Amino acid sequence: MGSEFVSLSLPPMLIGIFAAIACALPGNFLVLRKQALIGDAISHVVLPGIVVAFLFTGTVTTWPMMIGAAVAALVAVILIEAIQRLGKIEPGAAMGVVFTSMFAAGVLLLERSDTSSVHLDVEHALMGNLESLIWLDAFGWSSLLDPEALAGLPPELPRIFIAMVGVIAFIWIFWRPLKISTFDEGFAQVMGMQTGALGLALVAISAVAAVAAFDAVGSIIVIAMFICPPAAARLMTNRLGRQVGWSVVFAILSAVFGYVFAGYGPMWFGGQDSVSAAGMIATVSGVILALAALFGPARGGSQA
Amino acid sequence: MPELTLASNGGQVLTAEDTANSPLAIRGMTVSYGQKPVVFSVDATFVDGSMTAIIGPNGAGKSTMLKAALGILRPLSGSVTVYGKPLDEQRARIAYVPQRASVDWDFPTTVLDVVLMGMARELGLLRLISGGHKSRARECLSRVGMEEFANRQIGQLSGGQQQRVFLARALAQGADLYLLDEPFAGVDAATEKAIIAVLKKLKADGKTVVSVHHDLATVPEYFDRVLLLNTRKMAEGTVKEAFTSENLQAAYGGRLATAQIDQVLAG
Predict the structure, then answer these.
(1) CATH fold group of domain A2-296
(2) Which contiguous run of DSSP H or E holds residue B112?
(3) Which residues, at least 6 apart from A103, have a Cβ–Cβ distance to it below 8 Å?
(4) CA angle at residue A220 from A216 to A226, to 5 degrees?
(5) How does pLDDT run across A134-193, given as a tens digit for each residue?
(6) What's the Cα-to-Cα distance from B155 to each of A3, A19, B105, B179, rounded to whole Å?
(7) CATH, domain range B2-266
(8) DSSP-based three-state secondary structure for B234
C-alpha cells in the first residue's frame, strides 16, 4: 500500500493540492474585488498563447509557456479595451466575448497542429492529466529522502510548488496594501499606495498560478479554484484573515477528496473505471460552496 | 487686511507666500469626464487652521475637485501643493474620509480593523500590529463614540455609525489636514453632532478641515470659510465675505429661490 501510494497517488494529490492553493489564495481578493471573472478569463485566454509557444519551440516547458501565456493575456487586455471602446459594450460582456473566442481559437490551433508527441490536446487543456503524473522512481516513503528517486518526480510537481510559494510570498508581503486597497481604493491611493500597480500585480500573480496549474490540472480546476474555495470561505467568517485560511482548507479538501472520489468513487458504486480527477475536484469544490451557502455561519453577513 | 483684499478680488490675487503657507493650494485645476469639463480652471487656497466647506449645486464638481487634488482622479491640468510641497512628499500629513457609499460594507473586516487601516503608513508592509496600535485605534473610536463597536463586523453598522468609523480611521492617521467628502450625507442627527464636535476639536488643536458639504443651512454654524463651486470657482473666503446671497445666486442659478437663500443667510 505504502509504496504504491507514494508512486501513484501522492504526486498527483500534491499537485492537485498545490494548484488548488495557488489559485484559491489570489482568488480571495479577486472575488472581493468583484473580479472573479478575471481568473476565469485568464485560464481561458492563456490557451492560444501556450499553443503558439509550443508551435515555436516544439516543447512544453515552463518559460516559453509563461511567455506565450503572458503575451496572450496582453492581447486579451487590449482586445477587451478595444471592444469596450469601439463597440460601447460593458466590461463584463467584452471580457466574456474575448476569453471565449480566444479559448476557441486555442482549441482550433491545437486541433490543427501536431502535438501528438507531447501532452497537449483539447482534453488535456480542459482536464489536465493529473492521473498520469506518477512517480515511477519511488519505492515507498523512503524515496522522499532519496535524491536519485526525487530526480524522477514529475516536473509539474516542483513547478506548481514554486508557483504556490510565489503566490504565498506575494500575498504575505502585500497583505496590508491588498486588504486596504480592496476595501477602499481611494483611501489607499491617498495614503500613497500604488493601487493600480498592485491590482495589476494581483492579476499577474493569478496568471502565474493559472498557467502553472493549467499545465498539470487543466482549466476546469483553475476556474473552480479561483472562485469556489474563496466564495465558500466568505460564508464561514467575517474576517479577511480567517476567510483566506478557510479558503486554503477548502482548496485542500477539494483536491484530496476530489482525487480520491475520482479514483475510487465509481468502484464503490459497482463501476469498473475511474472518472476525471480534475472534474471531480472541481465538483467537490462546488459541493463545498453549496454546503457553505446552506450552513455557513456568516451567510447574509450584514443583513443579520 | 490681506484676506479682505483677496476676497474682494474673488480670491484671484495669489502670492507665492499664500501657496507656501496653505495646507492645500490648488492652481488652475481642470478635470473632465469625456468631453465636458466638470471642474474648470479652479484656483483654491485653503487657510491653515480653518474649517472650510466646499459647497455648490449637484454636479458642480465638488467631490471631483477633491479627488483630483488628492491624486485619485487625474486632472487635465493643474497643480497641487500641500503645505507648500508636492502632494507625494506630504501624504503623511493628510487624512481623507471618502464618501461612505464608495466602499462595499460587506467586506469581511471589523470596526477596529478599519481604524487600524489608518496606521498603514507607519506600519509599512510587514510590521505587526502591536497592543499600542490597538489601544490608539480604540482611543480614536472613543473620540467618535464608537468604542463599544470595536469588534463588530462593519456591515452590521448603521449609516451614521459607518461614517463615524471612517472619521475614526482618519483620526488614526494623525494628520494635519483633514479632507472629508460629504461626511453628513445620510447620517442621523446624533452622528452629525458627534462628527462636528470632533471636527471643531481638530480645528481647536490647530488642524485644518476641508469638507464637501450639502446642507447650506448649517454652513455658518459649522464652518468659518467657504469655497463656492459650480464647475468654476464662484467665490472663496470667510463665511461672512463669500457666503452671500449674490454668490449663492450665481452658483446655484435658478435652482435656489431667493427666499430660500434669504432663509439660509438669516439662519
Answers:
(1) ABC transporter involved in vitamin B12 uptake, BtuC (1.10.3470)
(2) helix B111-117
(3) A44, A45, A47, A48, A219
(4) 95
(5) 888 887 788 888 888 888 888 889 989 999 999 999 999 999 999 999 999 999 999 999
(6) 52, 33, 5, 24
(7) 3.40.50.300
(8) strand
Break chain A into its structural domains and give their ranges.
2-296
The C-alpha atoms of residue A129 and residue A211 are separated, in whole angstroms, by: 14
- Alpha-carbon gap, residue A94 to A79, rounded angstroms: 8
Kind and range of the H or E element at A52?
A: helix A36-57
User: Mutate which of B66, B89, B113 to disrupt the A interface (most A C-beta within 10 Å)?
Assistant: B113
CA distances from A13 to A133, A134, A142 (A): 9, 10, 18
Q: What value of ipTM does the predicted structure carry?
A: 0.89
CB contacts of A187 in chain B (<8 Å) are: 96, 98, 117, 169
pLDDT in tens, chain B (267 residues): 444 444 434 445 556 667 778 999 999 999 998 788 999 999 999 999 999 999 999 889 999 999 999 999 999 999 999 999 999 999 999 999 999 999 999 999 999 999 999 999 989 888 889 999 999 999 999 999 999 999 999 999 999 999 999 999 999 999 999 999 999 998 999 999 999 999 999 999 999 999 999 899 999 999 999 999 999 999 999 999 999 988 998 898 876 666 677 777 765
Rounded Cα gap, residues A133 and A8, in angstroms: 8
Residue of B nearest to A179 (CA): B117
Nearest residue on chain A to B88, alpha-carbon basis: A192
